[in-house]
User: What shape does this take?
Amino acid sequence: MPDPLTPEQRAEELARARPRRDLPIAPHAGPALRNLPLLDDVRPSDKKARPIYAVWEITLACDLACRHCGSRAGHERPNELSTAECLDLVDQMAELGVKEVTLIGGEAYLRPDWVDIIRRLKSYGIPTTTTTGGRGVTQEMMAEAKAAGLVGGSVSLDGDEETHDRLRGVKGSYKSAVQAMKIFKANNLRLSCNTQINRLSMPHLEHVLETFAAAGARSWQIQLTVPMGRAADEPDVLMQPYDLLELFPELARLKERADKLGVRIWAGNNIGYFGPYESILRGYHYRGHGGSCGAGIATLGIEADGAIKGCPSLPTQRWTGGNIRDAKLVDIWERSEPLRYMRERGTRDLWGYCGTCYYAPECKSGCTWTTFVTFGKPGNNPWCHHRALEFAREGKRERVVQKSLAPGDPFDHGIFEIVVEKLDGSPLDDESPAAPGVHPSAEATSPT
Assistant: This one.
């Protein structure tokens, strides 16, 4: 597919040293948020919503240093949950109705008692998977995890060998990931692949598909790299909204190839929205298309120190609803404002183009994580295929530029703004009308 970078730009990005050398590669996380207030009332929507799927960071320790890692993983958190606390949390998840759990990190296998957690989940009949970079995966490790009840896992693969190793921050990580896939299959574990799509990985998506399909993986989760954590330090690697004009036709083509290979593509919540290929990529959905953010409606995120969020990717400070050491899981789920945010959300807090969009009542600007870490508030998402096409139809495009840097903490983010320009990248004429919801000067838009 077309490369959004010139050969010279690609070579420069692949060879570039880590930015922000003043920041530690793996900062230590701060203390857990504790004793957060819970609301008194429980609404019918809070009783109706139940976390079908939980993603549980059981440690922040990691053996990679991925340059697009939103949590800046590396060191374990201070005072991570004990084994007893983890097992009690499993009991509470089962009581709340969780149907599936994915254990993540950092690297989940770096926690010595991870098989005890898997075993407890199995006792409730809860299928458990893991997501891994694969660097330290061994035959013995996966055999033990399989015996405890692990049913499968997803190995991260982000391009050809040179690109993957650059993004994952460790030379040889591509070979480790491919070897990890073989180990999963040797243990008869269900094998998936997950891929971050950015300007470096975008031209290599077909290579990724063919590689993991040959290894026996039968599903592929794709999502756009989001400007959180270390990814916010490298804005030039992030997709621009107008790159979607090239990306989506390619994803539709790859969907045909994936079908022939017996691979199911799972489009992440920031792959969208409502463009001409939506039904091709999300035809498996009962509505035939994606919807709005599911944080706190059907998904649950857990941090290793007991913090509870509606989505594992959301930043800790704003989106933690409570800590399992202070309150029962059911009370945090039903009575914390951050977890209740999406349950009765309308369109009042949408701004910019999203506030004017025909699909606003259904989409509500899509992925809360993507918009919040980009602009500091949800409600306006320029990474939308429908939106990119509408701008292109008027001879325009949106470009996202960084205004302030991320401070360098786990789950941190900077602040970006939207610049509207002609489709060829030149400035708009003063007399050119702005697109719906865009500041008339067409210079830049940012949240107010």
Remarks:
- Residues 67 and 167 are 5 Å apart (CA to CA).
- The longest helix spans residues 244-261.
- Confidence is low (pLDDT under 50) at residues 431-444.
- The radius of gyration is 21 Å.
